[in-house]
Design a protein that fits this description.
Layout lengths: L1 H30 L5 H4 L2 H13 L4 H31 L1 H16 L6 H8 L3 H25 L3 H9 L4 H39 L4 H10 L3 H35 L1
Helix pairs in contact: 3-11, 4-5, 4-7, 4-9, 4-10, 6-7, 7-9, 8-9, 9-10, 9-11, 10-11
Amino acid sequence: MKRAKRTTVLVGVTQLIILVLFIGLWEAAGRNRWIDPLLFSYPTKMFHQLWGTMSDGSIWPHIGVTVSETIVGFALGTLLGTLLAALLWWFPFVSRVADPYLVVLNSMPKVALGPIFIVCLGPGFLSIVAVTLSVTVIITTLNIYNQFREVDAGYIKVVRLFGAGRSQLFRSVILPASFPVIISTLKVNVGLAWIGVIVGEFLVAKLGLGYLIIYGFQVFNFTLVLSSLLVIAAVATVMYKAVSALERKLMAGWREQ
């Protein structure tokens, strides 16, 4: 136990040292022009950029819009993906028909669908959420549906011997047995939702962190680009930690049951 704790502390210290060395080397390389500071900037320049936009309040609307789009895309993607997986399990005929279409949709580059969403839904919030759903829903559906199919056949046979119908089988065996995979899919969808939202904002947004990245690129302000990426990393980490805490809580309740 003590050894495991020491290892955990050692891993954390090593990670911190690597981070400090990386930031220090980057700062030195930018200030001494070992790298082009116009293209790669350096940490203190990014800090001043962020501090300025936080002080004058100009960055908060961008963060608010991107986070709200991500939360909506994450929640809807997880919900729709789970419902589609349940539908495919419930109707095996539909599953066989849909199988090749799901494979094609999963392999398709989702950014290519962006212009279609913009034409159909208009250049705004709905198009960005639609791009996010195109990234999250199919993968969620495939992951959860595959887990539904891999539930131990022995459990299914026993429940059927006791006369359970398909509805009771789903509620008593399939869904509880797949609960860990459904919960772990939440963490996967956090990253996917961020990808979908940033891609959507690249295409159509006038507000958001993705828009700031594109704008910084257009005016050749790579400090703005990199500081926006830093904000995305920080906010995405907070969201991931929140989902991890929710996962631990739900899994603890599931084990007790």
